[in-house]
Amino acid sequence: MVEGLGDVLARPPQPPSPDGIAALRTALDAGARAARAVGGWSQEEPLRLSKHVVTGLLRCPRRALSDDQGAGGDDVVVGWVVDAAAKLAAVSPRRHVTVDAAVAFLSALGDGTVAEHLADLGPAGERLTSDAAARINRLTASLAGVDAGWWPRVEDPVRAALAGGAVTVAGRIDVLLGGPPTGRPGVIVEVKGGRWHDGMRADGHLYALLVALRDGEVPASAVTIVSDGTTHVEHMRPALLEHAAERLDEAMRVAARLAAGEPPAMLPGAHCGHCPVRPDCPAGRAWRPPGDVAVSAP
Amino acid sequence: MPSGGNRFRPIEGEAISSGPGTDGFHLASPEPIASVAPTPRKRASDPVGTADRLRAEAGRRIAEALAGAPSPGAVGDGYGGWVAAREAATCPARYRGEGGRGWGFPGWSPPLAGGACGRAALAHHIAEADRSGRRATLPMPLDAIRVWMRALRAPGETGDGRTPPVERSGVGDWVCEVWDAGDSATLAAVAALAGRWLAGFVRVLGWPLPPGLTLLNAPGPAAVSTLRWRPDKASPVTVACGADARLGRVTGAGGFALVVHRVTTGDDDALRDRAAFEAAAATLAIGVAPDSVLTTAGDTGERVTVPVDDDLLALGTERVVTVVAQRVVAVERGFDPTDATPSRACRHCDHLADCPAGEAWMRVAERWRGGLPVL
Description:
By secondary structure, chain A is an alpha/beta fold. Chain A has eleven helices and six strands.
């Protein structure tokens, strides 16, 4: 049987012991200090890492340093609407969240980007809104009606300052449930507007690490809810936190070399398909998906 | 590595500053925070006398600054809180350039009301428990916010007003207006942000809340509504302390601390500056100098105690006076790039196109993003 958020909240697993958190912080701090020595960052001018930057540095440094981070196309906007709908479902007593309600919620939070985008599209935006509505219906049901004792918090900020503040790792958890001082284990909920892929797990791992560093308690689970209907539940264990710390450490090393002037490596892969700098990237242009055979004219 | 200017700029959507890092900080602890012990440093030995002297000095310097205005009423009423102090100290030219539009209260909005509503809801939760003679239970953030919102709309016990006098506040009146307008999106946004504030505050300070904690800048019998000071009745200047709570009772011997809770530490990296401003503002408003300022951070869980001494109060007073001085200068000279001080704020500055220093800074900064070169 596939486990969902409701199952996790009904029978939350025992979170791992917090015993290893101090050692993880010490190791990360040592890694950050070593990176700082190469990268030259300071408390006033720090390296700022987020989940996107960490993933970007490990996946393809050339892409991570691109000035062109990709425009907010319709797919991105749909993702924003779905994300907002999930958060609204988590904090609102209402059972059904509409696209209009999600867009209004975003605007009330001070982000009018989506409303402006839809206004610009006019009637042509109907396909976008119907796509978003279908995804919202699949996604919000599990978030609506979460017991208030779980303390649903949306966009819960989390940040770790390492090496005296020369390296910061920050993010906002889509929905955080439980954790101190609720007396219930922490559950991280990440909402994704697109299609499930295995790389999404890393975001939940990183946030679990940051929450553990912040709260001194390891969250019990990271749940990724995807608008394609997928729900991925991952119960935290020490190995996952260690893996997240290793990724972070490696990202700091890569960042240090880049800040020191080393040319960025170009690491082609599936991400090249939607990379905005692909036209200027020889490795990216040459990359083909597995099984795809380049056809040339005779 | 390039030199000159700040080469780093924030990542969109992420925290925009670092805070002081982990050195010397403490992870949040479930244990209640003990009352603040006197610090052996240059702590004011006479908290009341210190406050008297600070009031006299701040009043004199504010009067001197106002005397530089072209006419007595030229400056207009000035409200000096932490945001104005930070803006005026960060880039005087930009602060002056904001003019009446930027200096005034922009009106409530969910992002602006989150902290105020969170404090009000927590104060209401505590007051309700006090009224019933029982200990307050751990508040569930969203429930606490909704209960407070409903109380705002409950019929008054003592008068014809819809809101009981005990609950009245500016932000409460705004919430009622939003409710009456049927704006459920804004109410949901307020609940989300206020709930986040409340959750972070309780998480970092622990529950039960530390002994002797009194909420500040919140309505109701369990809180102190405002902490403000005017140099004299005729002065156009009001200094406002934005601390969230006080630890300990105010006595002539001091013995209390201010609590400043920040949801994220991305909005300012000048922790000592913040502590200095709030300490000075509270000293002016209360008439007694606090022992320390406890600054807490929701995003890192850190708690930092900044002892209040003469140096800190002097720094805070300087920040207060700077706001007034720049308002006076602005009467005749608004934005003027000669004293512009480039920083990350340049990215969002309306005057960037007219500011050579800011443009030069941006030319360097745009080549870097979050500590990494941009290609």
